[in-house]
Amino acid sequence: MTQTVTLHVFRGDSNGGEFREYKVKTAPGMVVLDAIHQIQKEQDGTLACRWNCKAAKCGSCSAEINGHPGLMCKTRIEALPTEKPVVVQPVKTFPIIKDLVTDVSWNYEIAKTIAPLKLKDEGSTEPLRMQQEDVDRVQEFRKCIECFLCQDVCHILRDRHRKDIFYGPRQMVRIAALAMHPLDASERRPFIKDQAGVLACNITKCCTEVCPEHIKITDNAIIPLKERVADLYFDPIRALIRKVKR
Length: 246
Description:
It contains ten helices and seven strands. It has about 250 residues and is an alpha+beta fold.
């Protein structure tokens, strides 16, 4: 059955804004993105939002719905408490461009600093061989759709605004996909520690909780990267060896 739901949608830009109220007639199975499209079509065509596939695979329609980061195309209105207005606003970690659209270009810029896969024997003509367990380990990280919801809930980026010391969960996943690749010959640990800043993460697991692809970001990416850094920099035997070599 159809019902009328009230939405409070953020309208504004980098200079500020406000929430505006819209009433939308909903139907069973309707998602928040459907409601936004209905507002654009019937009430206000100037409302801006980013979307592409409407299948929870492009990561474009990230937003905060009732204060919880999620994909608008995946959040069913019938699953939300509608006795109060449904609040839709842009993710808070990144600068607002207009309404629900944010500037996430920082993520793409720092991704350029991550060295690509370097094969141990680049000149070899032998077939590349991997164990299935190694394939499975890195395949999980390839599921990332770059919705950047994990970046949005990361307290280092969101609350402390320290993009200068931490690349964020999404980039830890990218680095882990390379560092844990059995054919990668790069020594990435100094970069992971000093530039990507993996030690800044205090393992709250909030990034894992919001991932729409259910990637175990903390357990399978961040913690193993921390362990690799600890093996190199905080192992007392290794520290003694480095001191002797100096």
